């Protein structure tokens, strides 16, 4: 076994948590090795609770086992007190010989400081710079390296590629199981965004309902450039944010922000509010804008078994190959990654 194989084990630990359980913290895993044997493992299980390294440490009663051992951890141990105390401070007292780090923590509160602290305490620290953190925590990684929210586009389509019939009430495309999957995705996003057209025709709640979460609901964001929503009687008072270019609208309401409708500016504004990631749920014209401006990192397309008439509203056709494809309920879910997206 070499460093990379032990780190792979630590990454397997990290993904034992569901992304929404540690949200908005990253998923992190740790393995402690001595004489070629694993002494203990641990992972960050829940936001606000113990970090990976500490969970691994706590599982061993006889603390002398750690003397001369090596800790493999997917993310640099944190340097600050935070909610649970600094890992870099605690680790110094375990008698470890070496710490191997997968990635440097891009969060400015640590960002290299954890490694420095361990080295000053006489512990050998090696950084592998592997992709684990980026792959396991794409939004966390993206947000802290670019200072823009990670944009995930999401669209549900009929089997024949349409999103909705042009007239009348919207037909529901996804079934209960597919909805649960969407809600699991929503649960790892800081904000959900839609366009005014979708607000008017669908009146979606944009909340996480099918699964239990202990963190706050995502911020609900509507892009309403022309101020079409100003004379409607939607209640936007609780956890909504409307971006508009319409002066009249913004004067009346506290939940409205007057801005240029440029998507990049809106993303910058959301980042200032610590929005790590946004799920854009439609409609197709808003999604097209994100695609056209290359301001997206990931796209989910749920192609359901429902069929819509040929004069319906067209969905999105993608030429690129999906990263993966799974059946969820009545839908085939395809996940696309934008490798040249924005400022990756
Ligand atoms: C670690 N080990 O397992 C994790 C780390 O909110 P707190 O106090 O729990 O701290 C969260 C920050 O700590 C988070 O933003 C990230 O920078 C780091 N996560 N660090 O040493 C862990 N989950
Ligand atoms: Zn920590």
TrEMBL record:
User: Which residues are Zn(2+)-binding?
Assistant: 51, 78, 87
User: Is DNA damage among the key words of this record?
Assistant: no
Molecular function (GO) terms for this protein are:
5-amino-6-(5-phosphoribosylamino)uracil reductase activity; diaminohydroxyphosphoribosylaminopyrimidine deaminase activity; metal ion binding
Q: Which reaction does it catalyse?
A: 2,5-diamino-6-hydroxy-4-(5-phosphoribosylamino)-pyrimidine + H2O + H(+) = 5-amino-6-(5-phospho-D-ribosylamino)uracil + NH4(+); 5-amino-6-(5-phospho-D-ribitylamino)uracil + NADP(+) = 5-amino-6-(5-phospho-D-ribosylamino)uracil + NADPH + H(+)
Q: Which residues bind NADP(+)?
A: 156, 198, 202, 283-289
Q: Which UniProt keywords apply?
A: Hydrolase, Metal-binding, Multifunctional enzyme, NADP, Oxidoreductase, Riboflavin biosynthesis, Zinc
Which cofactor(s) does the record list? Answer: Zn(2+)
Cofactor: bound how, per the entry note?
Binds 1 zinc ion.
Residues where substrate binds: 186, 206, 209, 281
What does the record give as its pathway?
A: Cofactor biosynthesis; riboflavin biosynthesis; 5-amino-6-(D-ribitylamino)uracil from GTP: step 3/4; Cofactor biosynthesis; riboflavin biosynthesis; 5-amino-6-(D-ribitylamino)uracil from GTP: step 2/4
- As recorded in UniProt, its EC number(s) are 3.5.4.26, 1.1.1.193
- Give the matching InterPro entries: CMP_dCMP_dom, Cytidine_deaminase-like, DHFR-like_dom_sf, Eubact_RibD, RibDG_C, Riboflavin_Biosynth_HTPR
A Gene Ontology annotation in the biological process aspect, one of them, is:
riboflavin biosynthetic process
Residue positions of the active site: 53 (proton donor)
Q: Locate the CMP/dCMP-type deaminase domain: which residues?
A: 1-126
* Keyword Oxidoreductase tagged: yes
Q: Give the range the annotation lists for the signal sequence.
A: none
The entry's family comment says:
In the C-terminal section; belongs to the HTP reductase family.
PANTHER family for the chain: 2,5-DIAMINO-6-RIBOSYLAMINO-4(3H)-PYRIMIDINONE 5'-PHOSPHATE REDUCTASE, DIHYDROFOLATE REDUCTASE FAMILY PROTEIN (AFU_ORTHOLOGUE AFUA_8G06820)
So what does this one do?
Converts 2,5-diamino-6-(ribosylamino)-4(3h)-pyrimidinone 5'-phosphate into 5-amino-6-(ribosylamino)-2,4(1h,3h)-pyrimidinedione 5'-phosphate.
Q: Please identify the protein, giving its name as recorded.
A: Riboflavin biosynthesis protein RibD
Q: Which organism is it from?
A: Leuconostoc mesenteroides subsp. mesenteroides (strain ATCC 8293 / DSM 20343 / BCRC 11652 / CCM 1803 / JCM 6124 / NCDO 523 / NBRC 100496 / NCIMB 8023 / NCTC 12954 / NRRL B-1118 / 37Y)
């Amino acid at each position: 076994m070499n460093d990379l194989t032990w780190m792979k084990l630590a990454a397997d630990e990290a993904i034992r948590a569901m992304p929404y359980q540690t949200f908005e913290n990253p998923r992190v895993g740790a393995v402690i090795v001595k004489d070629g044997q694993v002494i203990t493992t641990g992972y960050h299980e829940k936001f606000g609770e113990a970090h990976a390294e500490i969970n691994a440490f706590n599982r061993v009663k006889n603390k002398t086992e750690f003397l001369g051992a090596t800790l493999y951890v997917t993310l640099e141990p944190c340097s600050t007190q935070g909610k649970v105390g600094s890992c870099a401070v605690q680790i110094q007292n375990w008698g470890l010989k070496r710490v191997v780090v997968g990635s440097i923590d891009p969060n400015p509160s640590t960002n290299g400081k954890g490694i420095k602290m361990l080295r000053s305490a006489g512990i050998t620290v090696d950084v592998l710079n592997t992709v684990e953190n980026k792959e396991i925590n794409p939004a966390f990684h993206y947000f802290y390296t670019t200072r823009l929210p990670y944009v995930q586009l999401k669209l549900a389509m009929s089997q024949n590629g349409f999103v909705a019939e042009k007239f009348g009430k919207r037909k529901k495309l996804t079934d209960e199981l597919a909805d649960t999957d969407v809600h699991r995705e929503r649960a790892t996003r800081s904000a959900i965004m839609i366009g005014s057209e979708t607000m008017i025709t669908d009146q979606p709640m944009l909340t996480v309902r099918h699964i239990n979460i202990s963190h706050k609901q995502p911020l609900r964001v509507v892009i309403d450039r022309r101020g079409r929503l100003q004379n409607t009687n939607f209640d936007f008072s609780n956890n909504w944010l409307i971006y508009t270019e319409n002066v009249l609208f913004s004067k009346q309401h506290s939940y409205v922000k007057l801005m240029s409708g440029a998507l990049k500016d809106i993303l910058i504004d959301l980042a200032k509010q610590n929005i790590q990631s946004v799920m854009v749920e439609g409609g197709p014209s808003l999604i097209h804008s994100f695609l056209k401006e290359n301001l997206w990192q990931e796209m989910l397309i749920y192609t359901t078994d429902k069929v819509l008439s040929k004069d319906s509203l067209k969905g999105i056709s993608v030429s690129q190959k999906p990263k993966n494809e799974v059946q969820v309920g009545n839908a085939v879910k395809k996940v696309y990654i934008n490798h040249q997206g924005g400022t990756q």
